[in-house]
Amino acid sequence: ANGKCIYLEVPVEELEKRVEGSLEVRPLLQTKTLGELYLERKDLYEYFSDIRILNLDMEKAINQIMEEIKK
pLDDT of the chain along its 71 residues, tens only? Predict the structure, then answer.
């Protein structure tokens, strides 16, 4: 495959802020906490990603992605 897998890394605290108010429409969060899901998946995301971007600021993340895919 020629594609790249990009992991947009976001601290669990920031994820919690982003999903606040929408927990009832997120089926996986009905049985586990966001922190539990994060810990279950983090190693897999890191292992399979070709590029990791710390995603706190959208514009910076976009610029970093653009730089990385040009390599």
Answer: 678 899 999 999 998 898 888 878 989 888 999 999 999 999 999 999 999 998 878 899 999 999 988 88
| 56: helix, strand or coil | coil
| Angle formed by the axes of helices 34-48 and 12-19, nearest 10° | 120
CA 13 → CA 3, 18, 36, 44, distances in Å?
Answer: 30, 9, 12, 19
Is the pTM above the cut of 0.90?
no
Cα(20)–Cα(51) distance, rounded to whole angstroms?
27
d(CA 34, CA 20) in angstroms, rounded, equals: 11
